[in-house]
C-alpha cells in the first residue's frame, strides 16, 4: 500500500484524521513514520496509541536549517515514502529537504492561499474583516506556503468569531480535506507534473479544487 511519512510539531489532530481514515474509512495507505521536531508534540502520543513508529529530531540540536533538514532526509529516505505529509509541521524547510521529496511533499495551511502565508492566519483573516476563511493543501516547493494548490476548503467567518472559534471551524475543514487529498495520492490519481497539478485526467486550476 501507499507509504506515508507524517511530520508534526504539535497536537497532531490532522495526523489523527489520517489515522482514523486509514482505520475506519479504508484509506489505502500506511503511516511508516511520524516524525516530530519537538519531543513534547501531542501528536506523538496519538501515533503511539495507534501503534505507529515515531522519531524526534530536535531542530535545536542543529546549528543550521540545512543540517536539520539533512538529518530528517537521512531518517526518511531509507523508508522511501510515497508521500511525505506535513501536518502542522512548524519549521521552514530548505531546498535540502524539499528537493529530496519533490513531487511527493504535501502541506496543509490554515488560510485560503495565496492569502496569509506564514503565521497567525486566523487573526489576520479576522483583522481584515474577511467573510470567508479556510484551509489549503498544496505541493511544497522552495517558496514558503507558495507551492501549487491542490484543494481548498472555505469556511464562513461568523459575526462573533474570535481566533479560537474560527480556528476550530478551519480545523474541522482540515480534518475532512486532508484525508481526501491523501486518498487521491494513495489511489495514484494526484501528481505534480511539469504542467501543474494533475488529478485524474485533468490539470487543476491555480486555485486547486475549491
Ligand atoms: C493546523 O491548523 C495546520 O493547518 C497548521 O497547524 C495546525 C496543526 O494542527 N499548520 C500551519 O500553520 C503550517 N504553517 P494539528 O497539529 O492539530 O494537526
Automatic annotation (TrEMBL):
Q: Where is this site: Raises pKa of active site His?
A: 145
Superkingdom of this entry's organism?
A: Bacteria
Is Transferase given among the entry's keywords?
A: yes
GO terms, molecular function: phosphoribosylglycinamide formyltransferase activity
PROSITE patterns attached to this UniProt entry:
GART (PS00373)
CDD domains, A to Z = FMT_core_GART
* EC number(s) reported in the record: 2.1.2.2
Binding annotation for N(1)-(5-phospho-beta-D-ribosyl)glycinamide: 12-14
| Active site, UniProt feature | 109
Residue ranges of domain Formyl transferase N-terminal in the record:
4-182
What reaction does this enzyme carry out catalytically? N(1)-(5-phospho-beta-D-ribosyl)glycinamide + (6R)-10-formyltetrahydrofolate = N(2)-formyl-N(1)-(5-phospho-beta-D-ribosyl)glycinamide + (6S)-5,6,7,8-tetrahydrofolate + H(+)
| Keyword Transferase attached | yes
This protein's pathway reads: Purine metabolism; IMP biosynthesis via de novo pathway; N(2)-formyl-N(1)-(5-phospho-D-ribosyl)glycinamide from N(1)-(5-phospho-D-ribosyl)glycinamide (10-formyl THF route): step 1/1
Q: List positions binding (6R)-10-formyltetrahydrofolate.
A: 65, 90-93, 107
List UniProt keywords, sorted A-Z: Purine biosynthesis, Transferase
Which protein family is it in? Belongs to the GART family.
Q: What is the role of the protein in this entry?
A: Catalyzes the transfer of a formyl group from 10-formyltetrahydrofolate to 5-phospho-ribosyl-glycinamide (GAR), producing 5-phospho-ribosyl-N-formylglycinamide (FGAR) and tetrahydrofolate.
Q: What is this protein called?
A: Phosphoribosylglycinamide formyltransferase
Amino acid at each position: 500500500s501507499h507509504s506515508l511519512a507524517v511530520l508534526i510539531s504539535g497536537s497532531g489532530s490532522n495526523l489523527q484524521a489520517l489515522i482514523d481514515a486509514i482505520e475506519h474509512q479504508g484509506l489505502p495507505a500506511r503511516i511508516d513514520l511520524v516524525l516530530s521536531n519537538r519531543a513534547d508534540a501531542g501528536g506523538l502520543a496519538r501515533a503511539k496509541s495507534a501503534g505507529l513508529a515515531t522519531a524526534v529530531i530536535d531542530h535545536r540540536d542543529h546549528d543550521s536549517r540545512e543540517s536539520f533538514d539533512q538529518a530528517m532526509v537521512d531518517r526518511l529516505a531509507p523508508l522511501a515514502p510515497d508521500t511525505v505529509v506535513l501536518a502542522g509541521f512548524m519549521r521552514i524547510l530548505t531546498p535540502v529537504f524539499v528537493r529530496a521529496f519533490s513531487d511527493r511533499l504535501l502541506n496543509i495551511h490554515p488560510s485560503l492561499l495565496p492569502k496569509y502565508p506564514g503565521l497567525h492566519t486566523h487573526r489576520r483573516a479576522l483583522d481584515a474583516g474577511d467573510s470567508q476563511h479556510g484551509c489549503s493543501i498544496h505541493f511544497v516547493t522552495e517558496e514558503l506556503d507558495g507551492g501549487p494548490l491542490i484543494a481548498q476548503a472555505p469556511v464562513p467567518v461568523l459575526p462573533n468569531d474570535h481566533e479560537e472559534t474560527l480556528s476550530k471551524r478551519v480545523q474541522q475543514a482540515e480534518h475532512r480535506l486532508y484525508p481526501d487529498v491523501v486518498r487521491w495520492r494513495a489511489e495514484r490519481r494526484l501528481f505534480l507534473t511539469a504542467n501543474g497539478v494533475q488529478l485524474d485526467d485533468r490539470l487543476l486550476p491555480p486555485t486547486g479544487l475549491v
